[in-house]
Structures are given as structure tokens and as C-alpha cells.
């Protein structure tokens, strides 16, 4: 009788999650048709007007927590569109080190990410984005510099200094997960399609809504499996002179997942991010971000707790392109996110004007 009750509870929870997603879809659809009918999407002071150099918005970056980076997680994006008819191509390479040791699980490995994609401003209101992300396990030699950094600032190692460097091990006994020596394996291989609609674009304020569909498939190896997820998000930007503020809120719904072990995934996840951009010299920008993601595990371990990440980066803008350098660090909860990640990225815009 107990199993029947638990099963019924799970069905009710799933129905509530689906209903929540449908309500969110309805709200975004209503906003879309309202602003379309009012023709308010692009104002005469729209950010789509030509610039001396493109305004690329937030840095090109993705969540780095182990579960979030291998799933669909809303990115911090500009509240404005690009110039009408413009196309951007972009690529980034990230090197991350994961060290987590708790009573429930342990993870010690390197993760590297190749991020490549393109986005197109199809109309003044509609922007389309398609990108591919490949996360793979490979030695990036970050253990030594991280241990030196901890020693210099007298930060505890949490056991990192008691094991050999450059290992690739994950163990979560509660969920029948144990993977050793997986260097060279693909962790995730995912395509994401994103569509964004401009709701408001005036001199200082930009607001847009977007939706993503994500599919990850790893055909073989320790992380063999697949995931299908969808997200909705609202993006807002405030611009004045050399300063920009960004923020977004998002929700992700996981339709289907067959991944390593018996890890119970959180079907519905929420996120928030905020960022600041400052052009301190012509073509030179500094960026700061704070990200908050709901836990991806539907359980009681640290993986079910919220993930907090901070980002600091620099962008050098050229006539139609930009080079970006950044790092991502976990804060608040040290046992459910990447220790540190470094990234270099390049973006180029083919502008209509």
C-alpha cells in the first residue's frame, strides 16, 4: 500500500510541474501577442541602431556547476536585439577543475568545454540562436595552481592536498554511481536552439523573452545517455553611457533524462542571474556577474541545494569582433559546484550596415 501512495504522489507532482510549465507558456504567449498587436517592440530609440562597434551584451558564458553545465541552464543575455539582419558567430573554450568531498558523494576531475554557435537577427523583433556544447574530461593541469592559490591565501583544501593530482573519479554510492579513470570520455554533447522576441526597446531599457530547446546525447562511455529539456526566460538590460546592467529569470523543464546511475533529477528548476558591464576605456570592458541556480538533484544532498557562482571578466572590442577572458568561481555552497573555471572566447558580427 505504501508503494501505491508514493507512486500516486509522484504522479500528482509531475502533473503540477506540467501545469506550471503550461501556465508559464501561456504568460509568455500572451506577452508576445500583446506587444505584437501594439507594435511596441521596437522604439525609435531602439538599441538596434548602428554603433561604432557592436554591443555584444553579457560575456559568452555558461553555468559551470557539474550538473547544471551538462543540462539546459538559462544564460545571461542582453535585453536588446542586435542590428536587424546581423549575424554573429562565436566560440569559447573553458577549462574547469571539480573537487567535491562530502558524506554523500565525491568528485575529483577536470572538465573542459568547447562552445560554438551562431545567432541571427531575423527581424527587428526576432532573434534566433543555435549552438553546440561539448563537455569532455581531459587533463588541464589546474590542480597545482589551485593548491598554490589556496596556500598563498591560507584557504583550506578540504582534502584536495591528501590525494594525487590529475584524477578522474566520481562516486555517489546512494545512487549507484561510481566512475573511475574516465579521462578522455565525453561528459555531454548537446545542441541548444534559442529564440528571442523583443518586447521593449527604448533608450535606456530593453526587455526580451526567450525560449530554448536542448538535446544532449552521449552514445557510449561512462556517461552514456540522453536528455531533452526546454526553458523560458525574461531578459532585462539597463544602459546609460558606459554602463550596462543585466538580469534575467528563467525556468527549465526536463521532459526526459537517462543519465549515469539512479540520480533523481529535479524536473522543474528556476534560475536568476545579474551582471554589470563597464567600458572603462574605449573598446575595453570589465564584467561582473552573479548567478543563482536551483539544485538539479531531487534529493537531500548538497546537489539539491542552490548553486551560487560569481564571474569576473574582460572584453576587448574591435570593429566587428571581440575577445573575451573570464573566470567563474563557486561561492556560498562549496560542495555542489565547480571549484574554478577559466575561459577564452571570440565573437564576430556580420553587420547589415
TrEMBL record:
What is the organism of origin for this protein? Vibrio gallaecicus
Give the InterPro entries listed for this entry: Autotransporte_beta_dom_sf (IPR036709), DUF3187 (IPR021523)
Task: Note the Gene3D superfamilies from the entry.
Answer: 2.40.160.20
The protein here is known as: DUF3187 family protein
Q: Which domain of life is it from?
A: Bacteria
Amino acid at each position: 500500500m505504501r508503494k501505491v501512495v508514493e507512486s500516486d504522489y509522484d504522479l500528482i507532482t509531475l502533473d503540477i510541474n506540467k501545469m506550471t510549465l503550461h501556465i508559464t507558456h501561456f504568460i509568455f504567449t500572451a506577452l508576445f501577442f500583446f506587444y505584437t498587436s501594439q507594435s511596441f517592440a521596437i522604439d525609435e530609440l531602439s538599441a538596434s541602431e548602428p554603433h561604432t562597434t557592436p554591443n555584444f551584451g553579457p560575456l559568452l558564458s555558461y553555468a559551470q556547476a557539474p550538473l547544471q553545465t551538462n543540462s539546459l541552464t538559462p544564460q545571461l543575455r542582453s535585453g536588446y536585439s542586435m542590428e536587424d539582419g546581423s549575424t554573429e558567430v562565436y566560440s569559447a573554450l573553458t577549462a574547469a577543475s571539480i573537487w567535491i568531498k562530502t558524506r554523500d558523494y565525491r568528485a575529483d576531475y577536470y572538465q573542459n568545454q568547447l562552445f560554438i554557435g551562431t545567432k541571427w537577427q531575423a527581424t527587428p523583433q526576432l532573434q534566433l540562436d543555435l549552438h553546440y556544447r561539448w563537455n569532455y574530461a581531459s587533463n588541464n593541469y589546474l590542480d597545482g595552481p589551485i593548491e598554490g592559490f589556496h596556500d598563498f591565501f591560507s584557504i583550506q583544501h578540504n582534502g584536495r592536498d591528501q590525494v594525487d593530482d590529475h584524477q578522474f573519479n566520481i562516486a555517489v554510492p546512494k545512487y549507484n554511481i561510481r566512475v573511475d579513470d574516465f579521462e578522455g570520455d565525453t561528459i555531454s554533447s548537446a545542441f541548444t536552439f534559442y529564440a528571442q522576441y523583443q518586447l521593449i526597446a527604448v533608450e535606456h531599457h530593453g526587455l526580451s523573452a526567450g525560449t530554448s530547446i536542448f538535446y544532449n546525447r552521449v552514445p557510449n562511455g561512462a556517461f552514456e545517455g540522453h536528455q531533452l529539456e526546454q526553458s523560458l526566460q525574461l531578459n532585462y538590460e539597463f544602459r546609460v553611457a558606459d554602463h550596462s546592467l543585466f538580469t534575467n529569470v528563467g525556468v527549465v523543464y526536463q521532459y526526459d533524462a537517462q543519465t549515469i546511475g539512479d540520480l533523481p533529477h529535479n524536473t522543474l528548476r528556476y534560475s536568476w542571474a545579474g551582471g554589470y558591464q563597464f567600458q572603462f576605456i574605449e573598446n575595453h570592458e570589465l564584467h561582473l556577474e552573479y548567478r543563482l541556480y536551483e539544485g538539479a538533484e531531487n534529493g537531500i544532498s548538497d546537489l539539491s541545494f542552490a548553486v551560487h557562482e560569481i564571474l569576473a571578466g574582460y572584453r576587448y572590442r574591435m570593429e566587428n569582433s571581440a575577445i573575451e577572458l573570464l573566470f567563474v568561481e563557486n561561492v556560498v555552497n562549496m560542495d555542489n559546484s565547480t571549484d574554478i573555471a577559466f575561459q577564452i572566447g571570440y565573437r564576430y558580427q556580420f553587420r547589415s550596415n
